[in-house]
Amino acid sequence: MSRLRYLTAGESHGPALVGILEGLPSGLPLESSDIDRDLARRQRGYGRGGRMKIEQDTAEILSGVRFGFTLGSPLGLLIRNRDFTNWQMRMGAAPGGPDPHPVTIPRPGHADLAGGLKYDHLDDLRNILERASARETAIRVALGAVARTLLRDLGIQIGSFVRSIGEAEAGPLDEETQRLWREDAEALGLRADRTETRALDEPSSRSFVEAIRRAQQRRDTLGGVIEVVATGVPVGLGSHVQWDRKLDGRIAQAMMSIPAIKAVELGDGWQAAHLYGSQVHDAIKWGAQGLSRASNRAGGLEGGVTNGEPLVVRAAMKPLSTVPAALPSVDLTTLQAAPAHVERTDTCAVPSAGVIAEAVLALCLADALLETLGGDTIASLRQPMARLRLSTRARAGHLFVIGPMGSGKSTVGAAVARRLGLPFTDLDQVVETRAGVSISEIFASQGEPEFRRLESEALTQVVQRELGVIAMGGGTVLNEGAWQLMRRNGAIVALNAPPEELARRLLRNERAVQQRPLLAGADPTQRLHQLVRERQRFYGRADVCLNTLGLNVEDAAEMVIGLTRSLEGRIAERAREKSSDLPPESSGMAGQDGEE
Asked: In this structure, which CATH number among 3.90.830.10, 3.90.550.10, 3.90.1150.10, 3.40.50.300 belongs to the domain 393-591?
């Protein structure tokens, strides 16, 4: 890894697992709950062994974070092994020993024998198996969850599901699942979490459970195939110029580093080997939205570089090497034939392997992203990331204006639309029109959750209209789905001002203040301080930001147009030069000169 590197330490039955992640930008919002969710996901799955009943993994953040934000210094994480209580006499670091129960019979398929020969631990193979254990992947999942937080903050989602277990194959994806596969990989992975085998539907899960039960009856183990998907990945991560910068090679190495993974496929890799080139390669198209692909058989990678399509990786996991029925082996003390050593094990760990694969892919993509974008702060990554996201588009799309109440979303947004000759939409007004009542009435009678649901539905409808300028509600930014819609359909500008200035502007109309549900009955300045503090981590995700303090509406509108124009790529420039060749419905924000 070049920009983001990590190390892990710890034994399976030692006191703890430790991880260090170096290269994170400063200013990334991060809490232990962001990590613990994925640790819990790793421990689930039908076919897991007794160890999962002992450990309830949580991560302790030791360094690199202060007051909920990364510092830019190395991040230190620790996961305590609860089972160490039962192993203190046998796994302690203090002088002592030997272990009264040494392991001298290696397991076929495990690192026991090769590692014992390499490191001269033939008298007790536990010195090998403790570190070679898949328990180490818990700390990698924790580090990967941090990388996932960075990627999500910049618009990339990662998820996984189980394709097969043993001879049992999953059924075809339904229409909604295919949409998630294309647009929201994290939601895809969470959907898989609903079943006990991480299949995407119950019939497939039942067939997987039956396969695992048959293996248990045989006192055997079972492997399978997982699929990992990343959506929102922009063009340009990785490079073709050197072998070690090719992202497909880096991803393959990362996947193969997971215990028991024996094969990796990118896109339709194995199937492509049996077809003609004309049947494999993804045709390039030009249309109103810019450049696109007719298919995604390449799995989002060409020449070691991402091409803007969903990144698709499949990994084959062999059956675990600790077979309860005990395979034939040799006792290294007597050199006599003997049944292999048996540790506590899982019958099938394929469901958890998907979560581990998400983690290593997140680490790999985060490294490639930081390598491409540069920058030591999260804020410095925003504009370069937006330029990558928009680089294949003929038009940036809608212009979404976000920010706290009083920041000028409606007034400045309307002025921008007028200058560019585009329609202007106030999302709050759309919600009120659709509901037939005011926002304050919705809050009073149905509560904020219902308002957020209506707001989400309204946004889904509005993005399908003619390209224009859309002023978002102040709390829309709390919805991850809203961020995905905005990023897929346009550029995002955040307006802001100090809370005192926001309150001053709002207090010009006392009635309007009382009609705002989140301000009613409270001191406006104090409440705005609280809202801005709670939501700033989301407002900060915008592609560009503008402080409107001291600016009149027209000056602010002119600056917004200039900032958003700076996000354009070469494709948009060429499209504007050849605008007569574009379909008539392609008019949009970046293609209008208006009154500039």
From this structure: 3.40.50.300
* φ and ψ at residue 342, rounded to 5 degrees: -120, 120
Instruction: Render pLDDT for 461-472 as a digit per residue (tens, 0 to 9).
Output: 999 999 999 999
H-helix or E-strand spanning residue 266: strand 261-266
Q: What is the mean pLDDT of residues 229-252?
A: 97
> What amino acid is encoded at 152 in this protein?
R
Query: Nearest-5° angle of CA 314, CA 320, CA 325?
Result: 150
Q: How distant, in Å, are the alpha carbons of 91, 167, 265, 315, 444 from that of 262? A: 30, 17, 11, 8, 57
Write 383-387 long-range contacts (CB < 8 A, 24+).
Answer: 383/543, 383/544, 383/566, 383/567, 385/154, 385/155, 385/234, 385/543, 386/491, 386/492, 386/543, 386/544, 386/567, 387/567, 387/568, 387/569
pLDDT of residue 592: 42
Q: Which CATH class is domain 5-91+113-373?
A: alpha beta
DSSP 8-class letter at 433: H
Name the average pLDDT for the chain.
Answer: 91
Q: Is this model's pTM higher than 0.70 or not?
A: yes
**Closest residue by Cα to residue 544 from 528, 559, 529:** 559
What is the chain's Cα-based Rg? 27
DSSP letter string over 304-342?
Answer: TEEESSPEEEEEEEPPPS--TT--EEEETTTTEEEEPP-
